[in-house]
Amino acid sequence: MVDGAPQAPFDGASLLPTFTDPAASAPRRTQYFELLGSRSIYHDGWKATTDHVSDGVVDEERLLTGSRDFATDHWALFRLDEDFSEATDVSGEHPGVVTRLRELWSAEAGRNQVFPLVSELMKRVGALVGPTYPPRPRTVFLPGGGPVPDESVPALFGGFTITAEVDVPAAGAEGVLCALGDWSGGLAFYVVNGRLVFALRPGGELVRLASRQPVPPGRQLLSVHGRPGADGGCALALFHGADAVAEASFPQALPVVHQHGGAGLCLGYDRAFPVTDDYRVPFRWTGTLHLLAVDTPGRAPEGTPEELRAALHAD
Fold first, then answer.
1. What is the pTM for the complete model shown?
2. Is 58 inside any structural domain?
3. Residues 158 and 296 in one domain
4. What are the pLDDT digits (tens) for 164-187?
5. C-beta of residue 158 within 8 angstroms of C-beta of residue 151
């Protein structure tokens, strides 16, 4: 029980024995999968998977071949012990196995409240339960901790201003002010070769804006402003304090999310694969980063006792 609510059974199985013993037994015999109507199941070395193509994921609709109808989905069958890469569909040779696995998938899906099946992305998005305490229109982050979870970072697609309050030594400074995601989708705000740069990858395409002049020494407010463009793209501008040092429009739209599954906002450094080839991680900021503020359109909440309780509960 959590807060008086009964919890679902925990179905996880530890993979730890496989880390030290390559011959260790698999931690489970059966594993089902479902996402936007695409279904799959593994059982005792067999894997059956559909060719279903969901509605509303533009690239999938344009590029994938397969079925758009649950009733006509083809279930391919693979023997993973002999075909780990799932290169050969043997469903025609083992129709009985396919039937058993489809029935097993239905049983597992029913036990995990998968039904009714929904193939449309927007129906799934519309059913999402938002966070109890969503980010405010102005959110201030302080350096020194680990990556900030994505749900604590305001969405940027409606327009944004990211401001870093920094000290720049007389000899200059460089490094990452903030970064989220990687070369498949994300953003980075940084100084390289003395110039302020903002790099954005919506869907893997690089958008890069660099300042025309070096970052001056001393206490500075370095910011990037982004807003949706009238033509569906975006407009970006860089500032040293109140002085605009770069501005440009791009055909790419500001993304709703940067990563599927979460990436975490890093302050004063980057990690894993960078958004851009301009630097190598961690590329730590060599000056002093005091804070990072993210401003987005919207009205700030009233700050009621109920909001405070929700915030403490969420933390």
1. 0.71
2. yes
3. yes
4. 999 999 999 999 999 999 988 899
5. no
